[in-house]
Amino acid sequence: MTDFHLATIPAQLSWNHSAVVWSVDSDDQLTIQAGPATDWFSDPVGAPRKDDAPGALFASADQEFTLSARVQVAFAATFDAGALLARVRDDLWAKLCFEYSPQRQPMIVSVVTRGVSDDCNSAQIEGDSIFLRITRREAIFAFHYSVDGRLWQLVRYFSLGDVTDLRVGFSAQSPTGSGCAAVFSQIRYTPTAVSDLRSGD
Asked: How many other β-carbons are positioned within 10 Å of the β-carbon of residue 45?
């Protein structure tokens, strides 16, 4: 698929897997349509690794950065999601998802994969949109979410180790469904971390 640029992202984005449909609708809005039965997950029970969800990724060499976006998802099936990603290689990555739970409730879900995936459900969300954010300070990453894009809540605080070849970006998935569209807007990237990774300020 064609590489592309967003005005608010400092590097070219490229696809790890093809989206069914994708579009850049303004300087800071990206739509990704995932196909059926697509996911990024390495199940601890030993099931085959899933790594076929479309992701638009760019290289970030910054030891500190913050990437955020408003994420709107057309939820239909369990585990449909839009996500922000931090990926080193196939077996070392993390994603922060706005995901549809088995209880048919939008939720904040985080997954950190070091060989196998560590999956954690967090807050339930009303509505079909939320702000998500990844911030990095050297070896430490933090995931946050926000209802309004101003007051942020910590989801996860973790490390991927000594990361030197990192790509970050955007994905949609539909592990149990026939496809899912996610719209990423108000996309922002800065080469600085937030002042307090745990509080979100």
From this structure: 5
Predicted TM-score (pTM) of the model is: 0.96
**CATH code at 14-190:** 2.60.120.200
Q: What does the alpha-carbon distance between residue 163 and residue 72 come to, in Å, rounded to a whole number?
A: 30
**Would you kindly state where each structural domain of the chain is located, as residue ranges?**
14-190
Q: Which residues of 66-93 are buried (b: 16+ CB within 10 A; e: fewer)?
A: bbbbbbbbbbebebbbbbbbbbbeeebb
pLDDT tens profile 14-64? 999 989 999 998 878 999 999 999 999 999 998 889 999 999 999 998 999
| Coil, strand or helix at 44 | coil
Burial class (CB in 10 A: 0-12, 13-18, 19+), 165: exposed
Secondary structure E strands in 35-149: 40-41, 50-51, 55-59, 64-73, 81-89, 92-100, 106-114, 116-124, 129-137, 140-146
